[in-house]
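## tool: complex_structure
## caller: assistant
## args:
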Amino acid sequence: MDTLESRNPRIAFKLAEVDRQIVKIASKDLARQQNSLMLIPSENYASRAVMEIQGSILANKYAEGYPGERYYNGCEFMDEVESLAIERAKNLFGVAHVNVQPHAGTQANMAAYYALLEPGDTILSMSLSHGGHLSHGDNVNFSGRYYNVVTYGVNAKTERIDMAEVSRLAQQHRPKLIVVGATAYPRQFDFEAWRRIADSVGAYLLADIAHIAGLIAGGVHPSPVPYSDVVTTTTHKTLRGPRGAMIMCKAEYADKIDRAVFPGLQGGPFLHTIAAKAVAFKEASEPAFKAYQAQIVKNAVALAGRLTENGFRLVSGGTENHLMLMDLTSKYEKLSGRQAADHLEDAGIIVNKNSIPYDKRKPRTTSGIRLGTPMVTTRGMQEEQMHLIADFIAEALEGRQKAAIKRRIRTKVQELCAQFPIYEYLLS
Ligand code: DSN
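## result:
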């Protein structure tokens, strides 16, 4: 029979036939993902369905533009995909307008600034060293170069955002945009209070919910949608979709936001990823997702509680969301976040070094580590396992100079992981 495969056999070869080297690397990471306790709060295990469509024929098409107004022909089904993703996101978050094209969170924030600001305008945002994000105006990022950035942080005593201080800074600097959102803040945001401050100085309010989007969709964190002009998020963290981002906004900013994404900052959208976002939004609208998000928070509270019992101080005293920041100086003055993260990796526990507020060490060293529960919760672990994990962390850090202790914990970690396998269809 005359087939494309018979005319061009390489098109039909399986990955393992084409590139054993890359298969081997991916298999090693599959084993690492299976055998480690992954506690980085911004990561997750995407579902098989999400991964299937992301690696599909939808990756073959260019579709610059938006549904119904493309710069390429042959986009009929790409329009269907993107419209479906948009509708599902609108329903999930109860928002007027959604742009599902941003490739990543920084691009989403960049598009929001591009739409609402002129170079030189003032942004009031959380400082990176207190838990903000590079793209909120850090001086090594484009946002710090093109805008006049004023930062707020957390109060030295409470380690929570001091809303009176935010209000004072807003009055003093009259920002055109206030950004609320963080990558390492373990407390909830009162978005209504942020709106009041923005209104008091006539500023736009941008909520960057990349970390907490899943919690919001699952109803375990208040939503910023009623109070914000623009909301940005990634889709792969607690939301558990493909690696990517989106922008939500009030109807009045829809055109500006869309034009900022394309043609302002991006060319062709990744329709295979947008299809995977659509799948993730469907999954996030199901009752099981609410239960998952509630368990993420319960697990974080359990992990935080047991770490505290083990003598570690947590920034702000605990957590109300999916993550926590551990202040290592409270127990081991000489141990940096970087060293602690490496010792824990030796024991099969993956975390990241992170500055703590008012950290005396540099960002590459840090005095803290950041831990979160989205991945272990996706595996099905509950409070009982969080207690075990906290004890593993304490034992590994206490015995950090002894390779045999870390090896023993690594074995225990692997035994625990074996009880909660991931992607069994890939492992078998
Ligand atoms: N990578 C994100 C995080 O880990 O929080 C920030 O970009």
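## assistant note: The pocket of D-serine is lined by residues 42, 105, 133, 183 (CB under 6 Å). The domain at 54-284 is CATH 3.40.640.10 (Aspartate Aminotransferase; domain 2). Handing back to user.
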